[in-house]
């Protein structure tokens, strides 16, 4: 993959040691204010994590790792750290990891994410020589604690992820930093335009940026970032096939034999409001068709089932143990890590 060559050639070759220094770029007034506030509010953030734990939105492992309490030993040799927030973004990193591993066979990889679902699924799709942990909060002592433990030789952030405290600390350690698969939505672009100096200051900490589309490249140019920006398609398309249970695949194959199957994957509520009525019309003329709906947020499976039932459709919900029968029209795959099927 061309990303691997660019990341390792454009001033981001792997180093053997980390040296603390002053940030290579000037810390502007707004960024300096952010850094001060990040120290002021981190006790409040710990309280918020505790509240999330009580609500079941965190577990003991994520609670520790988001406070940079790390028990896993750093592997010997070069270490490349990659970060993405959600499930799809994290799984897409596998393509880049495999390409970097080919370019640097001795390298180990650390993948961080924020969402609970990404950690559970990545375990079953983890490339060789790769570890996963939750990203610590971008507050207080946590970035320094994380970087002091892992000592990455190269740091890569994906898609929309930008963490000012981490970026300043990465610069202090002279660690090459890249932003790949970058994308900025029109709404986000308007916010960045209002705080142009702040975001330009942050983006200049990247040694290399690769964007998904011309809109993002134009936004960065308008902010004042003239150099070091490349344009390339999303590497989600290059990701290897997802892991799946061969036994389950055999069972589903038997249940679906002779039926046409339509899969609506990673849907949002507004998608389902369009898709389900259209599918009802389709099923009138193609009654043997089975429609598999996989909501992006698996917790929304019940809402999808209610919508389907309100349209008079016969549905089964996987998280509740629902079975596919000849009469089933909508199968709601509201679980994580099974799209490989």
CATH topology name of the largest domain: Rossmann fold
Q: Main sheet?
A: 7 strands, parallel
Widest beta sheet: strand line-up: 3-2-1-4-5-6-7
The first-to-last residue Cα distance is 26 Å
How many domains, in number, for the residues?
A: 2
Give the CATH class of the largest domain. Alpha Beta
- CATH homolog superfamily of the largest domain: 3-Deoxy-D-manno-octulosonic-acid transferase, N-terminal domain
Describe this structure in words.
- The structure is a single chain.
- With 341 residues, the chain is α/β, with parallel strands linked by helices.
- It folds into two domains: 2-238, 3-Deoxy-D-manno-octulosonic-acid transferase, N-terminal domain (Rossmann fold), CATH 3.40.50; 246-332, Rossmann fold, CATH 3.40.50.
- It is built from 13 helices and eleven strands.
- The strands form two sheets. Strands 3-2-1-4-5-6-7 form a seven-stranded parallel β-sheet, with helices on both faces.
- Helix 12 links the parallel strand 8 (261-267) and strand 9 (290-295).
- Helix 1 packs across helix 4 (87-103) and helix 4 (87-103) packs across helix 5.
- Residues 9-23 have low confidence and may be disordered.
Question: In short, what is this structure?
Answer:
With 341 residues, this protein is an alpha/beta fold.
Could you give the topology of this structure?
Blueprint: H1 2-9, H2 29-54, H3 60-66, E1 79-83, H4 87-103, E2 108-113, H5 116-122, E3 130-134, H6 142-150, E4 154-158, H7 164-172, E5 177-182, H8 186-194, H9 196-203, E6 208-211, H10 214-223, E7 229-231, H11 246-256, E8 261-267, H12 269-285, E9 290-295, H13 301-310, E10 315-317, E11 330-332
Parallel strand pairs: 1-2, 1-4, 2-3, 4-5, 5-6, 6-7, 8-9, 9-11, 10-11
Helix pairs in contact: 1-4, 4-5, 8-10
């Amino acid at each position: 993959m061309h990303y691997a060559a660019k990341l390792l050639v454009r001033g981001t070759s792997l180093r053997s040691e980390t040296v603390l220094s002053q940030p290579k770029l000037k810390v502007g007034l707004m960024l300096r204010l952010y850094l001060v506030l990040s120290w002021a509010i981190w006790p409040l953030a710990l309280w918020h994590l505790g509240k999330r734990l009580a609500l079941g939105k965190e577990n003991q492992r994520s609670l520790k790792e988001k406070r940079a309490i790390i028990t896993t030993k750093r592997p010997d040799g070069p270490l490349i750290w990659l970060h993405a927030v959600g499930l799809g973004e994290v799984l897409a990193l596998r393509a880049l990891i495999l390409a970097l591993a080919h370019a640097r066979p001795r390298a180990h990889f650390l993948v961080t994410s924020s969402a609970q679902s990404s950690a559970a699924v990545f375990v079953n799709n983890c490339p060789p020589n790769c570890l996963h942990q939750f990203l610590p909060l971008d507050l207080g002592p946590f970035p320094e604690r994380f970087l002091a433990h892992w000592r990455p030789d190269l740091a890569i952030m994906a898609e929309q992820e930008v963490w000012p405290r981490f970026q300043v600390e990465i610069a202090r350690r002279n660690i090459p930093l890249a932003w790949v698969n970058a994308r900025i939505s029109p709404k986000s672009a308007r916010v960045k335009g209002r705080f142009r100096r702040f975001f330009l200051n942050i983006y200049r900490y990247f040694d290399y940026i690769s964007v998904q589309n011309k809109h993002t490249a134009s936004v960065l140019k308008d902010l004042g970032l003239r150099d070091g920006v490349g344009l390339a398609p999303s590497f989600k398309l290059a990701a290897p096939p997802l892991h799946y249970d061969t036994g389950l695949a055999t069972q589903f194959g038997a249940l679906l034999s002779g039926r046409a199957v339509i899969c609506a994957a990673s849907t949002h509520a507004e998608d389902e409001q369009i898709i389900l009525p259209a599918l009802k019309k389709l099923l009138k003329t193609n009654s043997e068709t089975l429609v598999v709906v996989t909501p992006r947020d698996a917790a929304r499976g019940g809402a999808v089932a209610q919508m389907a039932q309100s349209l008079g459709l016969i549905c089964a919900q996987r998280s509740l143990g629902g079975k596919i029968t000849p009469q089933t029209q909508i199968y709601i795959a509201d679980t994580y890590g099974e799209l490989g099927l």
